[in-house]
Protein: D-glycerate dehydrogenase
Organism: Methylogaea oryzae
Amino acid sequence: MSKPKILVTRRWPDAVEAELSQRYDAHFNRDDHPMTVAELQAAMRDYDAVLPTVTDSVNAEVIGVANPRCKILGNFGVGYNHIDIAAAKAAGITVTNTPDVLTDCTADIAMLLMLEIARRGGEGERHLRSGQWTGWRPTHMLGSKVTGKTLGLIGFGRIAQAMAHKAHHGFDMDIIFYNRSQPPRDKIDYVKARQCASIEDVLREADFVALHCPGSQENTHLINAERLALMKPTAYLINTARGNVVDSEALIAALKAGTIMGAGLDVYEGEPNLHPGFLELENAVLLPHLGSATSDTRIAMGQRVLENLDAFFAGQTPRDKVC
Ligand code: 8YV
């Protein structure tokens, strides 16, 4: 029997591309460009499996092509807001993702953003590199203490729990959170967390608000002007989830007016074309979607996609089946 024909839409680390090529008739987007809708539509017609990433808009137009050959979309990433799950379900196409393996690295980036914005790391480095540093003085670049403060999590899934662990056990932070459903008691107790009844309660109380909810349609602009206005003027917003969860215009206005102290962002509406207003702000740390960007994690993500593919083509249910 011939090997299933697979398209990888973006380049993966060499080690996992090699593994994939051994097991499948694997094809790669050699120049690593973000694929267009027309290219994705062609891929749905020509390949048994397509392995997309966050830069691929696998919408209803793509999934709904006539006579698709593709039977599985093995997403390289945990978030799948760029895939129309309802359309995939209707077309009988399996979708898988890569949870667990990127949890720690993404939580690490959330910690990094929290520390960097509170302690003015990016701003300090720009100051030094531009030759403005004239030497130590007692009032130079004073930031906010992180240890012992209250971290408010919006969403309490794997990445939020990992951040809570690092923040509580490493930085003695108090953890509060909002989650639509009731998380397992042991996960809450482990970080002595307190579950709040509403997002508003978290926003009012937290010194750092970290977003860990999916970038679904219903979460678009979950953090809007009204909700930002509930945050303390000394508080910070951290986003490693998805850009659409925050209304960029409202956040820029709050940061400019100083109604919140700062923001640490790894994801943006319309990325990589983020709102130019962000670039003018000293009180924002801006990273280029680095959440899972370590060699170890990207290799583990590729291996997890492979594991899901292997199960699917062996006629089993993949471990990370989304639909
Ligand atoms: C991934 C992410 O690198 O997994 C996710 O949902 O946001 C990132 O860490 C990216 O999505 C790859 O598709």
Observations:
- The first strand starts at residue 5 and ends at 8.
- The chain has a mean pLDDT of 98.
